[in-house]
Write a sequence for this structure.
């Protein structure tokens, strides 16, 4: 999960840009797109600097948030996804995620349920986890 809402907005903006294969994206283009998105969504007028976008790209490339985005630089200045079908918003659950969800379901079944509201919420969480797992 991104550290804050502004970071999430930047990640989604970078993702949308890199998915657009009909345009070449330089670092300056990505900075401008992120600044515009932050202004449109949050009213932030100061924009972002190139270093922030570079760090965002590094985080998106890493496993830190689970993205492992295949971002590549080509012609020495342009950014794109190496996999044209990749998107951080359309990531499937990994085998490890499925195992964790199964463990959570087992724990929710065993949970000592005394409070009615807790029981209702835990049952809803369990049902949603089961639905997610069945979807995968």
């Amino acid at each position: 999960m991104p550290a804050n809402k502004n970071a999430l907005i930047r990640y989604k903006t970078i993702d949308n840009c890199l998915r657009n294969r009909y345009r070449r994206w330089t670092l300056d283009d990505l900075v401008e797109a992120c600044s515009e998105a932050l202004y449109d969504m949050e009213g932030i007028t100061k924009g972002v600097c190139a270093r922030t976008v570079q760090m965002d790209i590094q985080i998106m490339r890493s496993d830190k948030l689970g993205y492992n985005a295949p971002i590549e630089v080509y012609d020495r200045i342009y950014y794109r996804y190496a996999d044209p079908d990749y998107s951080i918003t359309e990531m499937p659950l990994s085998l490890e995620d499925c195992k964790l969800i199964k463990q959570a379901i087992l724990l929710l079944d065993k949970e000592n349920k005394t409070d009615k509201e807790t029981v209702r919420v835990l049952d809803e969480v369990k049902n949603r986890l089961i639905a997610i797992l069945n979807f995968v």
